[in-house]
Amino acid sequence: MKMKERKTLETILLISLLFAIECHSLPLSTSGRWVVDEEASGERVKLACVNWVSHLQPMVAEGLHKRPVGEIAGVILSMGFNCVRLTWATYMFTRPSYGNRTVAESLGGLGLSQAKEGVAKNNPELLNLSLVDAYEAVVDVLGQHGVMVVLDNHVSNPKWCCAEGDGNGFFGDKYFCPKEWLQGLTIVANRFKDKSQVVAMSMRNELRGPNQTEHVWYKQIRKGATTIHSINPNLLVIVSGLEFDTDLSFLKQKPLKLKIPNKLVFEAHWYSFTANPQGVEWVKQPLNQICGNRTEWFESGATFVGTGSNPAPFFLSEFGVDVRGVNARDNRFLSCFLAFVSQRDLDWALWTLQGSYYYKDGVVGPEETYGVLDYNWDKPRNPKFLNRMRIMQLTLQVPNSNVSKYHLIVHPRSGRCVSVKGEEGQQHQIHGTNCKKGSRWSHDDGNGGAIRLMGSGLCLKAVGEGVPATLSTDCSSPQARWKLISASKLHIAAVGEKGEPLCLDGKVSNSSSILTRKCICSLHGDGLDSNCHKNPLRQWFKFVPSNLP
After folding, report:
1. Angle at alpha carbon of residue 451, lines to 449 and 452, rounded to 5°
2. pLDDT digit string (tens) for 515-524?
3. Under a CB-based contact definition with an 8 Å cutoff, are residues 353 and 76 in contact?
4. CA geometry: angle at 533 spanning 467 and 507, to 5°?
C-alpha cells in the first residue's frame, strides 16, 4: 500500500473514535414503531446502514480487489454506519453451478483478470473459496467488527437491478420462480441462523413490473415471512411493497396479518428519480412546491406504517444521491430528504458503499458516483456529504423517555444545527454547529409563536436584513413570533424591526452564522410565491424533535 494511501486509511480509522457505535445485545425485536434491543431493557436500536452490493454477475462482495475485507469493515464503522444491507442473488444459493464456483473462477470466467489479481493481493484467503463461503466470510468479518447485517434478497438471476421487464421483478417472472425463491430464503435463513450479527432478512428488493398484483403479493409475502421466522425466530423480517418498493398504501385497507409477533419491519425506497424516471421535477418545478408534494406522497405511500394506532417500524432501505455534489437534481432532493428523514428519525440504509464495481452491465470496472467511497475504496468520496448525514446517524427519539420533548433546528443544506455561543452576561451568537452540540429549543410547531431557548428566558429574534439572528427576553414582539410560510414547511419567518418579512438564512460562506434575510420567493411575509423558481435551499430549516437526555 502506498504511504499516502495508508495514512489516509489510518486517519479515517482514527476518526471512528469520534463516532463510536453504541453496543446493544442481540437479537433485535420491535416495539410499536421502534426497533429495540430484545434481551436488554427494550432500548431503541437505530439502524444506520449502508448497502454493499454482492448480487451482480461476479456474485462477490464489491471491492475485495481494492482493500482487505477487515479494512473495509473498519471504514464502514469510521463513517458512522452501524450495519450493512448486504445483497445476494437467489441463484447463488439454490443452484450449485452458481454458488459452488470459487471467487477465482467467477472473476476469471468474466475475464476480470485484474480484479482476480486484486483479490489475490488483498484477500488471498477468499480467492479459492466458493462464492457462498466467501459471502459468509464477509458476514463473519462484519460481525467481528461489531457491524450488524441485513441480508437482502436483491434478485434471482445475478445482474444489475432494476428494470421494469428484467425478469427479476415479480413472482412468476422469467427468473423469479416463487418456489425457488422460498428455497433460497430457507437456505439463507438456515445458513446464518447462528450468527448473531445477522439481525434481519429482507425478503425481496423492489417488486415491480406488469405482472405485479396485490393478491399475489399477500400470498407470497406471507409464505416468505413465515418461512424465515420458522427457521430463525430471532430475525427481523423486512417486508417490501410494490412499484419498485415505493407503495405500501394498500395495507391501509388490508393489513398484513401474520403470527410473527414483534419481528415485522416494512421498507421502501426513495430517490430523486423515484416515480419520475429523470427526476426533472426537482430542477424544473418550484422547489418548495415539489418538496412539499413529494414528502406528502412518500408519507402517504410508505412511512404511514410507523404511525397510527398500530404502528410498525419503517426502514428506508435505499436512498442515495451523486455523492460528488455536482448533480443539481440530487442536490435539491437531498436537502428536502434530510429534513424529512431527520424529523421522523427513521431507520435507513444509504445506497451505496462501493465506489466502483468489478463488472456491471457488460462494463469492466465502472465507477459508482452514488458510492460513499471513492473509486479506489481508499477514502470517502466527499467528506462534506458525510458531515451532512451526521444528523441522520444520531438517535434522536426513543420510546419511554422521561425527558420532555425539545427540538433541534436543522439546516439541511449544511447538516448543521442552530446553536448559541456566548456565556451568560456576554452577547450571544447564533450559529450552525455539529448537531450533537445543537441548542435545545421549544416552539409551537411554527404557528406564529416564540422559539425559546430551553433552560433560559430567551427566545430567537429577527433584527433586520442581512443581520445575524439574536436572542431576546422580549418573546412577545413581532420580531420574536415565527411561523412556517412555505409549501415545503421549511421556511421559518418573522418580521424585522422595520416590518419587513425575514427568514432564517444559512449564510453561504465559510462562516457558520445564522442570519435573517428577505424570504426567497416571499409575497407578503405570510406566504411564498408557489410559482417562484428561485433556489431557497439556504433558507430551509427544520424543527427536529428529540427526547434524549
Report:
1. 120
2. 999 999 876 5
3. yes
4. 25
